[in-house]
Each structure stands twice: as structure tokens, then as C-alpha cells.
Amino acid sequence: MAAMARSFSEPNLEGLEEELTCSICLCLFSSPVTIPCGHNFCTSCLDLTWAGLSGSFSCPQCRTTFKSRPQLQKNTVLCKVVEQLQSRSEAGKQEEEEEEVEEAAGRGVEETPIFCDSCLQAPAVQTCLTCTASFCAEHLRPHQESPAFRAHQLCPPLRDLQRRKCQKHDKLFEFFCSQHGSCICSLCLLDHKLCNTNALEVAKVNAELVLKKKLVELHNQSERTSQMMTKVKTNQSQAAEAASRKRDMIRNEFSEIKALIEEKENNTLKVIADEEKRVCNKFDYICGILGNKKKEIQSLTDQIEMALTEDDDVLFLKRATALQRASAKDAYVPTIEMDQNLMHSTYQAAISLKDAVKHSVPQSKPPPARTKPAPAAAPNKAAAKKPQKGLHQTQGTSQVEADTKEKKKTHKVAPSTATPTSAAAVAAKELMESFMKKPREELLQYAANITLDFNTAHYKVVLSDKYTKMAVSDTSMNYSYHPQRFTDCAQVLGFQCFKRGIHYWEVEMQQNNFCGIGVCYGSMDRQGPESRLGRNSSSWCIEWFNSKISSWHNDVEKCLPNVKATKIGVLLHCDGGFVLFLAVGEKHNVIYKFKAHFTEALYPAFWLFSSGTVLSLSEMRP
Ligand SMILES: *[C@@H]1O[C@H](CO)[C@@H](O)[C@H](O)[C@H]1NC(C)=O
Ligand SMILES: *[C@@H]1O[C@H](CO)[C@@H](O)[C@H](O)[C@H]1NC(C)=O
Ligand SMILES: *[C@@H]1O[C@H](CO)[C@@H](O)[C@H](O)[C@H]1NC(C)=O
Ligand SMILES: *[C@@H]1O[C@H](CO)[C@@H](O)[C@H](O)[C@H]1NC(C)=O
Ligand SMILES: *[C@@H]1O[C@H](CO)[C@@H](O)[C@H](O)[C@H]1NC(C)=O
Ligand SMILES: CC(=O)N[C@H]1CO[C@H](CO)[C@@H](O)[C@@H]1O
What we know:
The protein has 622 residues and is α+β, with helices and mostly antiparallel strands. The chain has 5 domains: 2-106, Zinc/RING finger domain, C3HC4 (zinc finger) (Herpes Virus-1), CATH 3.30.40.10; 126-164, no CATH class; 202-338; 342-412; 440-617, Jelly Rolls (Sandwich), CATH 2.60.120.920. Helix content is 40%, strand content 18%. The strands form 6 sheets. It has a 7-stranded antiparallel β-sheet, with no helix packed on it. Strand 6 and strand 7 form a beta hairpin. Helix 5 (200-308) runs antiparallel to helix 6 and helix 5 (200-308) runs antiparallel to helix 7 (340-360). The two termini are 88 Å apart. The structure holds 2-acetamido-2-deoxy-beta-D-glucopyranose (6 copies). One 2-acetamido-2-deoxy-beta-D-glucopyranose is lined by residues 220, 223.
């Protein structure tokens, strides 16, 4: 306010700015000095201009020369004027800001009076819009008394007359141009002929209407925003509720799953417990019998000892005769053992269940990077762990279902793989060749641990070392009947089967080279001459017949060069449709490759020719 009051009372310094500018730096003087010719410059500017000169100093403005460097006098008057001008322009800026603040704060605050523009002391009582000046009672008098001022328009004192004036015409604003959004004076109207202009009052009413409408809209908008916020909050709580409900449902599902598994566990454990009980009862029974037998023997012993103390010859001989005839027969002790078949298959059922669960519960860790057909990698593990046919009773129904599903899948897959385009054939060949070049270390990433399926073992095939070692016995092992058991050929299959993906396992020939190593479909015959590996269309194998090595498939034999290796690697690429037999540790390690369109899951398969042949499956470390 003070600044504003001053701005009215002080002379207008604006025109002076040019006069107060240094002609060297073109800025307002800073500590100006006057030189003898009468011109003024900033001290520093002149210092710079004259720096290094030894004679003939000239005025940068009028070129008057001085023989020696003139004594410079600080122009104190000029200094003050410049200071004032600077403080004014700063105050001006500040003033604008202050005004804005004031406008925002409203006009309710206590105001300093408006002063008379004539005496600049007494408060004004009226403002003359014609003169664009405010007057105190004293100085207003001419307006009230002299006819010369009769036409002048008076109004209550107006504060900021300067701002109500057009800068260009120095006339009060009377109109508003809506195109330019600015107030204009009557002279400006000419420039705004084409614009939509209104008298200030009219423009004000219009603007008020617009703003009021805007207020309504804003209110409306605020309502809508609140409504939306309510909706969002509702949705948020609904989402939280829904999530919590789903969580509960999922928990229920999982507890059901756990209960199912627990029931299965209980049942499985019960099978073992029952078997244990059965055997224990038998042992108890036999213990009882043996106990009785012991008593019987003791009693006989006692009688004989008693008889031996008899002195009467006749009596003694009579007793002795009876006792000599008496004898205690040895108790018959049958072999009692737990049903290994049952124990094993029960355990295998648990493993199958675990594998099935693992298969259907995707592991969160990312699958290891595979070189070729990546999509095959995931499902193959599952197929690999597909439960074996004809397991323990409890597995029965689900197994049948799984098998039918598998067959359906097979039928769907078969036609597309059966008629490959030549490009696909080339790709398949390249794929196979790429695998033939791979070093063992690389194949180990496909390593699979194979165990042997007891239920398939021929009655002369002996399994040991946790079902990883097989040999041929001269006598029958008296295995119980099983539909999956080989009855004619001394063969056994792996427990694992592979429908998808890439798998690698190794077999060690420990003694006696009369054996066959290969793969076959689960559907291969178990009886008759066609059940022999390689002698039908469902199996592929390499056979060692002493020093002769040959490949067999579909009853077709191919003789192969000899290999010294006793460790044989089998690489099965289900999707690529090939199986490689490799001599582990040899340079040219591919013994033979079979190319085929596999339509069923494949099992590792083994044939053992004569007693003394021993094969063992290596434990694979990927
Ligand atoms: C909000 O404004 C629209 C038009 O902009 C109007 O139709 C509606 O009735 C208004 N709603 C309220 C609650 O004022
Ligand atoms: C709130 O949920 C309803 C129905 O679920 C949906 O149609 C609406 O778009 C949601 N609103 C917001 C803001 O998410
Ligand atoms: C399994 O056996 C345990 C201990 O005998 C028992 O507490 C549990 O209820 C059984 N679970 C089921 C599903 O039968
Ligand atoms: C094979 O079994 C061994 C011992 O149980 C284990 O360390 C190895 O990781 C298994 N290999 C594969 C490929 O599962
Ligand atoms: C199989 O049974 C026969 C006759 O019952 C017997 O002589 C043979 O020792 C049994 N073999 C085995 C491995 O138990
Ligand atoms: C069960 C099976 O695959 N049998 C086949 C064995 O191979 C001969 C041909 O070598 C086929 O005729 C059989 O059908």
C-alpha cells in the first residue's frame, strides 16, 4: 500500500531510464563517474576501456581526447537517481505481487484512505472519471461550482485510477473486448471494430453469469467425483472381500487335497502294517509251536533222566522200552517272509503318486535351458513319471483313465507326425545329427534315473541294488503271475516311461556280453517269440552276442562294428523321433541310431541271455 501511495506522489522516472544508461555496457549506471567532457560511465566500464593505455585517453561517447588520464569523480547525484530508479522498479514488481495477494484476500481489510490527487494530503471524497483524478472536498469544489466541469462524471473515490486507464490513450476503460479478454477505452474501440465488445457493466454481468454457471458445474463435478470415490471404495472393499473369499475357498480345496493324500498315505501305510501283522502273526504262531515242542522235549528228557535213576531192573527195562520208542519230531518251520511284491508295489505306488503330484503341481523354479525343442521339455518329465501299468490295486481305476487319455493324445498327435513335409524331415535329420555330435557332458542334462519294474521281470531275471541291477538265475525266482511279466524271454523293462522330451540313461555291462539294450512300447507282447526285443515293430535295440553286435527292429538285424566300451548310453528323443545308442568314453561313440515316429510312450528295455549276464543302470547326475 505504501509503495502504491508513493508511486502516485513521485515524479514519473520512466522516461529517465535512457538517460541513466551507460553507453558502454548499455545497462543502468553502476557507480557512475563523470569525465571532463561531461559524459558519464560506469567506473568499471571506463576502467576496462582505458586499461593498458599510457596516453591519449578519449571519451567513448564524444571522442574528446585527454593527454593524461583524467581524475574520475564519483557522480553522487547520478548515483542517487539510479538507486531510486532501481528501487522503484523493484517496488513495482513487489507491488504487483502485493496487489494480487490483496485481491485474493478481498476488500474487507482496513484500507488506507484514497488521497486527493491535487493536494496529495487530504482524503479524496469523489473521483472524476473525466479528469481521471480524485479530489478532496476542497479541491472538488470547482467541479461542483464551475459550469466548465458540469459535464464531468463523478463517482465515489476510486483507488487505482492508473490501472483503470488505457496506457495508449490515457483514457478510462469503458468497454471489454471478449476476443482479446481485455478492457479497452472508447478510443480503442476503433481497433476492436470487428470484436465483440460490451460496456464494462454488461461484460461484468455476462462474466458473472458464466462464473455462476461454472460454480454449478464445479459443484456438479465435485458431486460426481465424490460418487466415483464412493464407488471405487466400494469396489475396493468388494475386491478385498472377493479375494478373501477366494482364499478361503482355495484353502478348503487344498485341505481337501491334503486330506485325500493323507488318506492315501494312511491306506498305503496300512497295507504295509497289515502285511507286517500277517507275518508277525505267523511268526507268533510258529514261536508257539516251537515253545510247545521245547516243552515236549523237556518232558521226555525229564522222563528219561527219571528212568535212569530206577534201580529195579524189571521196572527200568519196562520204562526204557517205552521211552526208547518215544521220540519228539522236529518242528516244521515254514519260511515266512513279507510279500516283497506287495511291499515294492506299494512303495512304487507312493512314488507314482508323488510324481503325479509333482507333474500336476508346476514347480516354481524355471526349467533349465534346453538347446532344441523347448516346448517338449515341460511335459516330458510328466510323461516320464507316468505311473506304471498294473500297479497296486488302489491305483487301478485312475491308471485306466490315464491310459485312455494317453491313447487319445497319441491318436491326435500321430497324423501330424506321420506325414512330415520334406522340410520337417530335413530339420529332424539335422536335429538328430546335432545330438550325435554332442559330448556326453551335454547329454547329461537330459539324465534320467531308471529303476527296473519288478512286475515285468521274467521269472529267471534277478533284480538287486534297489532295482538297478539285473542278472539271470539258473532257477526260477517263483515270481507271482503278473500280466506285464515276460514269460518267454529273459527280459525286464524300466519302471519309467517317456512320451515326450529328451532322456538319457546309461547301462553298464558288468559281465558276459550276451545281452540286449533298447526301448519298447508298453504294448509290446509279453509272451511268445514276438515278445523278444527287436523282433517286433514295437521295440528297438542293440544286441551283444559275444563279440557280435547288431541292431534289431521289426525282426530286421543289422550287423555293426565292434565296440570296446562296456558302458552304453541311450539317448531317447521322443519328439524328434530317434534313439541313439552311444559307446560311453569312445571317440566315435555312436553305435547306432534308430529313426522312427514314436506313437506311444517308450520304456527302457533289457534282454539278458544266459546266466552270468549282469547289467546295471548307472545313477545319473545331471
Ligand atoms: C450435472 O450436470 C449435468 C449436465 O452437465 C446435468 O444433466 C445433471 O443433472 C447435473 N447433475 C446434478 C446432480 O446437478
Ligand atoms: C466397480 O465394479 C463394477 C462391477 O464390478 C464395475 O462395472 C465398475 O466399472 C467398477 N468401477 C470402478 C471404478 O472400478
Ligand atoms: C490318517 O491317520 C492319522 C493317524 O492315524 C489320523 O489322525 C488321520 O485322521 C487319518 N487321516 C485320514 C484322512 O484318514
Ligand atoms: C538320480 O539319483 C541320484 C541319487 O538319488 C540323484 O542325486 C540324482 O540327482 C538323480 N538324477 C536325476 C537325473 O534325477
Ligand atoms: C522256487 O520254487 C522251487 C520249487 O518250489 C524251489 O525249489 C526253489 O528253491 C524256489 N526258488 C526260489 C528262488 O525261491
Ligand atoms: C506286438 C507287436 O508289435 N507285434 C509285432 C512284432 O513285429 C511283427 C513284425 O516284425 C508284427 O507283425 C507284429 O504285429
